[in-house]
Amino acid sequence: MKINDNCVGCGQCTAFCKIDAIIVKSKAHITDACVNCGICATYCPMKAIEADE
């Protein structure tokens, strides 16, 4: 998963990540612990999370 420019750093994605693979400072950052389940992308209100190509 990757974060695009739509991210505003709201942190809502962190509530849905079951393995705590998202860190939010000024914007979200997905760590190497991510297993690409995509649940965070489903709940991101800004559509700022997308699958890696």
TrEMBL record:
GO terms for molecular function: oxidoreductase activity. Residues 1-22, 25-53 form the 4Fe-4S ferredoxin-type domain. It holds the Pfam family Fer4_21. SUPFAM superfamilies: 4Fe-4S ferredoxins. It comes from the Archaea. This is 4Fe-4S ferredoxin, iron-sulfur protein. It comes from Methanococcoides burtonii (strain DSM 6242 / NBRC 107633 / OCM 468 / ACE-M).
